[in-house]
Predict the 3D structure of the following.
Amino acid sequence: MKVFFIGAGPGDPELLTLKGRRILGEADIVIHAGSLVNPEILRFARGDAEIHDSSGMNLDQVTAVYLRARSLPGTVARLHTGDPSLYGAVQEQMEFCRREGIPFETVPGVSSFSAAAAALEQELTLPGLTQTVVLTRAAGRTPTPEKEDLALLARSRPTMVLFLSMEQIQEAAEKLLTSYPPDTPAAVVYRASWPDQKIIRGTLGEIARLARREGIRRQALVVVGKALGARENPEIYQKSKLYDPGFSHGRRDAAAGEGEP
């Protein structure tokens, strides 16, 4: 038996990777986070597969399924939302499998921050404006290291993407405002790629109030940074050198100067 930790994507079943869909369709046992994974994705599982909803299970109960399956042929598909490497609580499961001699493999998925950027019709890294994206979260029931306090991370004013922070959005905004101007563009993307996806746009100074007014308290990302301003003002960033006719690289020579044939 082999365990596959599969990134199920942000919600849209079509954003499950081809590899993830194939493995899910072959799996004998499927464990999914029922409170977060789109149930439509389970349509890709075999009709006779053993299905477990991990939303009501603790770590011992999940790993007990791995232990029981260890001596059996076939595979276990463990579905995590987005990409397992981000807030997936998957490391402890991998360590368990390694310790118990259970073969495992991770199949990456489309992260919700990628889906949020797509929904915003936004590139998060724009030349001359920002080349850094920080993926982080506000401290809540799960604390963050002191050196990763939002006020410290905000000092260079990168494009900031906050996961799991809607309950603390006001406090998070106040910390970001120690470095970002109040008129910095910001957005909240609720359930990116789901049918009920919702986007709230505003400034950092008002985004918490706007999100509260819409009743959004979970399953949303907060995106902050000057890059979001390019939608209304495309002159604020530089065009990419990659396609600049005067910029040469390994696949293309620079164009001749102006006025030359």
Remarks:
- The mean pLDDT is 93.
